């Protein structure tokens, strides 16, 4: 009887560990990337445009699947109008006119695609490249920590004076509703605005909590895939694929939850500027913001951040791989049950963050899976991370450190049609050494 009890306890322990590991990174009984995503969008051809979208949309308008739309120049949805887009509709952004679609404050977008029939925003060029057109911008009236009025006017050239009102965002309603974005793909966006400024694939500025944002894929963006300024919006099942900029950037007092989402970086398409999978900042310049207001706070759960590399050690040595997560001063991040695989290092704190109890309680990592990273958590410009390793390596945080390659770590990330970035549980081999850089044989 005693032996049976021992066997049962061991069995339950093993089952518990397996289910615990399965909760790390993106999750789902099935691979939720099936059907609606596209990892080779440059191979798709769409019908020639039959309708043109230009100027202001100032009354309720519906885009239908039977037509293909050419987005021409800076298009604004204004005057409290609602733009409704049928599942399967294709909107093609014009290269020459730096096409973009902006949902102005007070207006709404209802772009509710289906898993089997997503809505697609893409480029009009025959050979498509990152930055072919602008992107999608949604402006709301939730709070920000910036002083005065905020605007995206700098994204748009040659605006008339009356058009500037359509570029403003920010207000006092954290629960405001800007509509629905669901099962939407945004491809080859991020047009250059100036030397170092680009459109984003999807910019959400002061969006309120009643807005629905889920199952959105941004691929091959020359700017950031997803940028969130202020607001209080939850984000579910987002995919950023081969972005030149940041995958997910939160700034200016954003208060958001990022759940069950994926970023796949390539060492060969990243910008030469500092770009990350996840960047948490409260400002770009201190004089821009009101410190009596809340800084940026992000709760990130079941996130998978991965560098798609066949030789991560060589790519790190060449300087092609940077950190996965960057946390700026006066910002808060609670990240849990997530995977960070193949970065240099996994996490970087801004060098102005002083390592003390107060700041460490604002930046939490628990139930994490750090894999194949050249070091785990550091302060910028400081190679001595002993305090951080001791803190986050404490068993109370349940963080796991490993050194498996991508094919052993993920179920099937090399499948062009149906990649599966969930963890391959039976192949995980944890490392007792928190310093993954030693496992890679790389000197810091």
TrEMBL record:
Q: What is this protein called?
A: T9SS C-terminal target domain-containing protein
């Amino acid at each position: 009887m005693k032996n049976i009890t021992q066997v049962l306890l061991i069995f339950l322990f093993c089952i518990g560990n397996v289910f615990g590991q399965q909760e790390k990174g993106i999750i789902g009984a099935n691979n939720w990337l099936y059907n609606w995503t596209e990892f080779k969008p440059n191979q798709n051809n769409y019908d020639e445009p039959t309708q043109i979208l230009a100027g202001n949309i100032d009354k309720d308008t519906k885009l239908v699947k039977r037509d293909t739309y050419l987005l021409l120049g800076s298009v604004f949805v204004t005057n409290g109008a609602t733009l409704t887009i049928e599942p399967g509709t294709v909107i093609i952004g014009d290269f020459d006119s730096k096409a973009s679609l902006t949902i102005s404050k007070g207006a709404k977008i209802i772009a509710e695609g289906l898993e089997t029939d997503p809505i697609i925003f893409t480029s009009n060029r025959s050979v498509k490249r990152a930055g072919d057109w602008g992107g999608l911008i949604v402006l709301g009236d939730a709070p920000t920590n910036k002083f005065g009025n905020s605007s995206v006017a700098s994204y748009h050239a040659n605006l008339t004076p009356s058009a500037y009102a359509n570029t403003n965002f920010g207000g006092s309603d954290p629960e405001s509703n800007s509509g629905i974005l669901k099962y939407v793909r945004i491809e080859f966006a991020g047009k250059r605005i100036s030397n170092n400024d680009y459109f984003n694939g999807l910019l959400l500025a002061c969006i309120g909590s009643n807005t629905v944002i889920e199952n959105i894929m941004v691929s091959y963006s020359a700017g950031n895939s997803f940028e969130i300024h202020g607001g209080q919006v939850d984000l579910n099942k987002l995919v950023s694929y081969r972005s030149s900029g940041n995958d997910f950037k939160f700034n200016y007092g954003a208060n958001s939850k990022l759940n069950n989402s994926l970023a796949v970086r390539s060492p060969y398409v990243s910008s030469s500027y500092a770009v990350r999978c996840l960047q948490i900042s409260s400002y770009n310049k201190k004089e821009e913001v009101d410190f009596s207001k809340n800084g940026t706070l992000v709760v990130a759960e079941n996130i998978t951040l991965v560098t798609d590399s066949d030789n991560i050690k060589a790519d790190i040595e060449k300087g092609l791989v940077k950190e996965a997560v960057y946390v700026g001063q006066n910002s808060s991040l609670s990240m849990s049950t997530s995977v960070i695989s193949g970065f240099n290092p996994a996490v970087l704190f801004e060098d102005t963050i002083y390592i003390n109890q107060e700041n460490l309680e604002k930046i939490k990592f628990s139930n994490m899976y750090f894999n194949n990273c050249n070091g785990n958590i550091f302060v910028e410009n400081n190679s001595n991370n002993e305090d951080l390793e001791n803190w986050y390596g404490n068993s109370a945080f349940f963080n796991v450190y490993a050194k498996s390659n991508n094919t052993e770590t993920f179920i099937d990330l090399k499948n062009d049609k149906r990649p599966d970035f969930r963890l391959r549980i039976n192949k995980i081999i944890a490392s007792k050494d928190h310093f993954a850089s030693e496992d890679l044989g790389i000197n810091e």
